[in-house]
Amino acid sequence: MPANTVHAIELRAVDKRYGKAVVVDGIDLQVHRGECFVLIGHNGAGKTTIMKLMLGLTRPSTGQVMVLAEDPASRSFVVRRQALGYLPESVSFYPHMTGLELLDYYAHLKGVPATEVGQRLQQVGLHEAATRRLNTYSKGMRQRLGLAQAILGTPRLLFLDEPTTGLDPLLRRDFYRIISDLRSSGTTVVISSHALNEIEAQADRIAVIKHGRLVACGSLQDLGRQAGFPVRTRLAVAPGSAARVAEQLAAHTRIDRVNDRSIDLLCPENEKMLVLRHIADLGEAVLDISMTAPRLDEIYLHYMNGVQ
């Protein structure tokens, strides 16, 4: 990939049709090198199909897909394919192989030294189960093994489709720690997920997909701004002073709620700093302040319910 190329992946006016059914409809998007890019949307929105287009597992009906500056479905991309890692939504392995045998097999396919296999098993917490047959593995163990095979060779591009299915909260934390370490080494990560609350802390940018179309794309802050969501600010004030403080602020921002000890304010994202300056002018009348940006689940519901 040329050194000046900022996009690891680019989709240009991409459609994907199966007969008369339009699964992906005119998608334009770019994934920057080194970022964590997240696809969200309802079941059947087209997220997995978009990921398969990026992987070269299917071709677009119209439009162009470029991955590492090449068509991922072309014959010339075979060499670059070793730079990709993929964890599908439904992990299916040969049940009578052991975890060690399976990873040895994938390491051979990817041209990865066999010495890395043990390291990856240790990394995902399966070292002690390495010689057990896969038909004895729990769903969570199979998911962790799937992650181990996906990160063999430290891929330049890692694709994860609903990756934390079957993992308990502790294992999810460990999973994202591994992903964070890979990103630190330069890996670009593309994730499709319904776990909105856990994924919002991981994402650099988020694409909202609805009925095969891209309806919004950007950082969490960008999406909140595009959706018109206000920033909520809560002020803690001295008992009995809330009404007076609220009256002073009413000329500068929207007062949402007032009680004896606190005031809730709502303001557009682009007015946040101006409101903070007005609050600072109040001096000791304000005991504490907290600001809350819109959550990803709120933004998701906005786009699912409000955008056709």
How would you describe what is shown here?
The chain is of the alpha/beta class. Helices cover 32% and strands 28% of the residues. It contains ten helices and 13 strands. It has helices spanning 47-55, 99-110, 115-123, 139-150, 169-184, 196-199, 220-227, 242-249, 272-280, 296-306; strands at residues 7-18, 21-32, 36-41, 62-67, 84-87, 157-161, 188-192, 205-210, 213-218, 231-237, 254-258, 262-267, 286-292. The strands form three sheets. It has a six-stranded mixed beta sheet, sandwiched between helices. The protein has a four-stranded antiparallel beta sheet with strand order 11-12-10-13, covered by helices on one side. A three-stranded antiparallel beta sheet has the order 2-1-4, with helices on one face. Helix 2 crosses helix 3 and helix 7 (220-227) packs across helix 10. The radius of gyration is 24 Å and the shape is globular. The mean pLDDT is 91.
